[in-house]
UniProtKB/TrEMBL annotation:
One Gene Ontology MF term: retinyl-palmitate esterase activity
Domain PNPLA: 16-185
BP-aspect Gene Ontology terms: lipid droplet organization; lipid homeostasis; negative regulation of triglyceride storage; positive regulation of triglyceride catabolic process; triglyceride catabolic process
Listed EC numbers: 3.1.1.3, 3.1.1.4
Protein name: Patatin-like phospholipase domain-containing protein 2
Signal peptide boundaries: none
Motif stretch (DGA/G): 172-174
């Protein structure tokens, strides 16, 4: 848990830990995007960034500087493919391991293993004795990807033969430790389940009962039961997009509560449902307000909404060029001279 009694959070050392959560890992994308955008020092200066299972995928993207928007879009696309099949991800034609490997190969930079070594901690479960192992060093990009594959490999769900890393067979890290180093007071814990994690949904429930699943605090309520049911069998894409946005909002709440906001959040001023042209204009920068027509403003707003619905909150995801290009207003022809009416 993050130290709340620290005199200056910016002067302490800290870790970040992402819990395993299956397809709900899109929540982590929203949190990571918020941290990267509004508190980049929190990511850059973290001693270690840990992850288990799906949390390892986000931790890897965050440490290596990969595009979080693309990572979030990948989760949604994979969930769409799973939902097309009878039995979803359990259908024989759906190969989750192959899909994860392909997505990581495409999104991670070539030197990702160098950026990750020493900072990234991936939680694994050793098959031989069931003990938890956290791996910190990676000799190649392929080995980093293989570590993620091992951390996300759920027996039977993903296959029958566990993958091998450095000559040892491992399975899902969440089985033995779903929230690495959660017990350290300087670890910022992130979970898509409401509970005692530093960054998590705040459900309005009076139920004080709590489950602790391999070190992950999960409040016993209906919303968490729903989330648990969707971790391995993904919900509709719109639900995943909303989870991503919720992760972004929960990350902002954590930063604001602990005085860690690096700069004001411009998106907080955007109305959720635009009411008028004036509302559109007020939500845009001054230089844009003075140059955009009503049509341009509407187009800009629609593109902004599309990006947010996709969960593309990271600063390294730019709007399409056509969406940002200023349109030159068509020249207006001079009005014909007005002749006085004949007497």
């Amino acid at each position: 848990m993050f130290p709340k009694d620290a005199t200056s959070p910016r002067e302490t050392t800290w870790n970040i830990s992402f819990a395993g959560c299956g397809f709900l890992g899109v929540y982590h994308i929203g949190v990571a995007s918020c941290l990267r955008e509004h508190a980049p020092f929190l990511v850059a200066n973290a001693t270690h960034i840990y992850g288990a299972s799906a949390g390892a995928l986000t931790a890897t993207a965050l440490v290596t500087g990969a595009c979080l928007g693309e990572a979030g879009a990948n989760i949604i696309e994979v969930s769409k493919e799973a939902r097309k099949r009878f039995l979803g991800p359990l259908h024989p034609s759906f190969n989750l391991v192959k899909t994860i490997r392909s997505c990581l190969m495409k999104t991670l930079p070539a030197d990702s293993h160098e950026r990750a070594s020493g900072r990234l901690g991936i939680s694994l479960t050793r098959v031989s004795d069931g003990e938890n192992v956290i791996i910190y060093h990676f000799s190649s990009k392929e080995e980093l990807i293989q570590a993620n594959v091992c951390s996300t490999f759920i027996p039977v769900y993903c296959g029958l033969i566990p993958p091998i890393l450095q000559g040892v067979r491992y399975v899902d890290g969440g089985i033995s430790d779903n929230l690495p180093l959660y017990e350290l007071k300087n670890t910022i814990t992130v979970s898509p389940f409401s509970g005692e994690s530093d960054i998590c949904p705040q459900d309005s429930s009076t139920n004080i009962h709590e489950l602790r699943v391999t070190n992950t605090s999960i409040q016993f309520n209906l919303r968490n039961l729903y989330r648990l049911s969707k971790a391995l069998f993904p919900p509709e894409p719109m639900v995943l997009r909303e989870m991503c946005k919720q992760g972004y909002r929960d990350g902002l709440r954590f930063l604001r509560r602990n005085g860690l906001l690096d700069r004001p959040n411009p998106l907080l001023a955007l109305p959720s449902v635009p009411l008028s042209y004036a509302a559109y204009c007020e939500a845009l920068p001054g230089w844009m307000r003075s140059n955009l027509s009503l049509v341009d403003t509407l187009a800009k707003w629609e593109e902004c909404q599309r990006q947010m619905l996709l969960g593309l909150f990271c600063t390294n995801v730019a709007f399409p060029p056509d969406a940002l290009r200023m349109r030159t207003p068509a020249p207006t022809s001079p009005a014909p001279p007005q002749h006085p009416p004949p007497c």
